[in-house]
Specification:
Length: about 210
């Protein structure tokens, strides 16, 4: 595997029509419009802060903190974008973040995502998750990726099931979501389980089973 030193933030990943790229200050209007349209759709799954005094106060501050975490190597905060035409700029359709990156004896990270309700179920999120996971296994040299999902979140559960993440059990009161501590189902995948890469495996399965 390439050494972790090959990683330099900012990083943009592209595959077909899907683009994972860092946040920029001038994305504010587009990002906030997307969040506003999806407020009700995302409310049940959005992380909330039980320490309100430490919450970020503005979009600009959020971008600064997220990109600092990318430079520090503790997270990979990406906008999930989609090319809708050959010449047009990719439009923002969601977010994918790799967080809690740990090196040393663990070499692990957690991954989370959300997408515009109108784009859900089109195979965009599984492809983006596979793309990000392969970057973490290949370029970052990580060993383990983990995704934690609320038991009621059927669309997200379908994503990890399609990609072959292993179910490792229930974490009680794991994250503060929608104003309270919520249980999460924990799923994981290690690099040796996908020696060919997760994206090639997903695309091979996707071609064999149309509509997945």
């Amino acid at each position: 595997m390439p050494p972790a030193a090959t990683h330099r933030w900012p990083v943009t990943l592209e595959h077909g029509e899907i683009v994972l790229r860092p946040f920029r200050r001038w994305d504010q209007e587009e990002w906030m419009s997307l969040r506003s349209r999806n407020r009700d759709w995302l409310r049940r799954w959005d992380a909330t802060n039980p320490e309100p005094h430490s919450a970020l106060k503005s979009y600009v501050e959020m971008v600064r903190v997220l990109n600092r975490s990318g430079r520090d190597g503790t997270a990979l905060p990406w906008l999930l974008c989609l090319r809708t035409s050959a010449r047009g700029q990719p439009v923002i359709v969601g977010q994918l973040s790799v967080s809690s990156i740990v090196r040393g004896s663990a070499l692990s990270a957690s991954l989370g995502y959300w997408i515009d309700r109108d784009r859900a179920g089109a195979g965009i999120v599984p492809t983006a998750v596979a793309l990000a996971t392969d970057y973490c296994f290949g370029t970052l040299g990580l060993h383990r990726m983990e995704i934690n999902i609320r038991p009621e979140n059927a669309p997200s559960l379908r994503v990890v099931q399609k990609l072959g993440f292993r179910h490792e059990g229930l974490r009680r009161a794991f994250l503060h979501i929608d104003g309270d501590w919520r249980d999460h189902e924990s799923y994981a995948l290690t690099a040796p389980e996908v020696p060919e890469g997760l994206l090639p495996r997903w695309e091979g399965r996707h071609r064999r089973i149309p509509g997945q």
